[in-house]
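FORM 12-B: Structure-to-Sequence Request
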C-alpha cells in the first residue's frame, strides 16, 4: 500500500481534533487550547517523524 503525506497526516489530524473536542467537555477550554493542544501537536510531529524514519529503515534492503 502506497502512503503519501496526505493519507498519513489526515488520520493523525482527525485524532488530534477529536481528542481536543473531547477534552473541552472535561477541562476548561482555555487550558485545552493553550496547553494541551500544542503539546499534542508537538508529540504528533515527533511521532510522525520517528515513524517515517522507522518505516524507511524497515523498507530498506
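FORM 12-B RESPONSE
SEQUENCE OUT:
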Amino acid at each position: 500500500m502506497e502512503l503519501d503525506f496526505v493519507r498519513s497526516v489526515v488520520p493523525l489530524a482527525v485524532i488530534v481534533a477529536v481528542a481536543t473536542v473531547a477534552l473541552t467537555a472535561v477541562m476548561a477550554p482555555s487550558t485545552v487550547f493553550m496547553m494541551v493542544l500544542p503539546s499534542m501537536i508537538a508529540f504528533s510531529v515527533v511521532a510522525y517523524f520517528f515513524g517515517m524514519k522507522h518505516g524507511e529503515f524497515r523498507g530498506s534492503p
